[in-house]
UniProtKB/TrEMBL annotation:
The keyword Lipid metabolism does not apply. Keywords: NADP, Oxidoreductase. Gene3D superfamilies: Aldehyde Dehydrogenase, Chain A, domain 1 (3.40.605.10), Aldehyde Dehydrogenase, Chain A, domain 2 (3.40.309.10). Its EC number is 1.2.1.3. This is Aldehyde dehydrogenase (NAD+). Belongs to the aldehyde dehydrogenase family. It holds the Pfam family Aldedh. One of its GO terms (molecular function) is aldehyde dehydrogenase (NAD+) activity. The lineage of its organism: Bacteria, Pseudomonadati, Pseudomonadota, Alphaproteobacteria, Hyphomicrobiales. It comes from Paenochrobactrum gallinarii. The keyword Transferase does not apply. It is an enzyme of class 1 (oxidoreductase).
Amino acid sequence: MSNNNSLPRYGNFINNNWQDAVSGEVLTLKNPSDGSDLALIARGTQSDIDLAVASARKALSGEWGKMTATERGRVLHRMSEAVLKKIDLLAELEAKDVGKPITQARADVVALARYLEFYGASADKVHGDTLPYQNGFTVLSVYEPLGVTGHIIPWNYPMQIIGRSLGAALAMGNAAVVKPAEEACLTILEFGRIAQEAGLPAGALNIVTGLGLEAGAALSGHAGINHISFTGSLRTGEAVQAAAAKHAVPVTLELGGKSPQIVFADADLERALPFLVNAGIQNAGQTCSASSRILVQRAVYETVVAQMAERYRALKVGSALSDPSVGPVVSDRQKAIVDGFIELAQKDGLTIAAQGQMADGTPENGAYVLPTLVRDVPADHPLAQQEIFGPVQVIMPFDTEEEAIALANGTDFGLVCGIWTNDGARQLRMAHAVQSGQVFINNYGAGGGVELPFGGVKRSGHGREKGFEALYGFASLKTISLYHG
């Protein structure tokens, strides 16, 4: 273990300044690949959130608030270019902090840059309308920034989620306070440096690290916040929404899922197979839109089970920087949760179709979980109902289209769905019938590209991020009625 005195130490980023928490307390980040201490971060609390919100409010009446939409877009473009120049640093930080294989971490850096590019180009393209009304009136609608937006970012995709959330908020002219997850936040802190160097005015972005029950709760219930964007667990999302409701603050919630891929007998299995596996084990299965349920028509069920099992047995689990198929989960706590589901499957007599294997030389103290494929899982079993958030997939047979729809819709969640069939009429019937925020036909994007609006239905949350639609979520629509006779 590292000596704490020798660890890198990160403060909060408030008003373009780095400062310790008001309390002076710190938290220790762990490297999930080997269990070592990685860095010290500030343990922010209510006092630090107060400072950050005050800084953001000041920015709205200062240089940032006076910028035109075009000028904001140019700042975001500079930030995008600066991110790509630091791709090696950001990827290494993400790999060490989250446990993400380095290739995946590099892809997330590119995605962050693309979000900033997309929203930079979108900033001056949000247009209002003129509305037909009574004679003698001209009525306009205009979009205005909400004010100060709060962003609570999870540990699984820090760069991607700050890109889609913060990028849209800044493009619309809001000032932001970001609270990253205490388990993994180094790339977000480094992003604060990048934003400052790229010329983002003081106060437009503020970052406060700390515990969810302290800094996160303080941000959610703060009277100076005008919108909250939260990605994370259902239970925490409920608490965030309840806290924001005390001040009638709108909330965008992305709360996870139990997303199915539905494979019909006429599907192109050769094309489908990589998507069936990769969408479940990417980032060690720690993806809100992970495809954790594979529903397969009985005529091809055994074939798909055998082919997925073969791929599972070839998966290698190892340290993030060795760039394995699957890295560690983010923490020992998360490992215990995922291991608990695998143990439950074994206790209940479910059949493990296949597991991956540890790579040679993998550190003993890492938070590693073997990728696990479980077959013939009953629809009401916890493994088929609850979000596991680890590299565990269940595979289940069905006979008819109606049964497939019932299975797909038979959980509390509705985030993403994949449908594999060459029958065009069935493609459309299924797309309309499944309860899901996104539907992919003969592909599976795990949220898809930057351009595609993303969010869920049912207990997967509400509101949309990504794409142009996200801009409206960070804006207030004002109607102006002019009487001129």
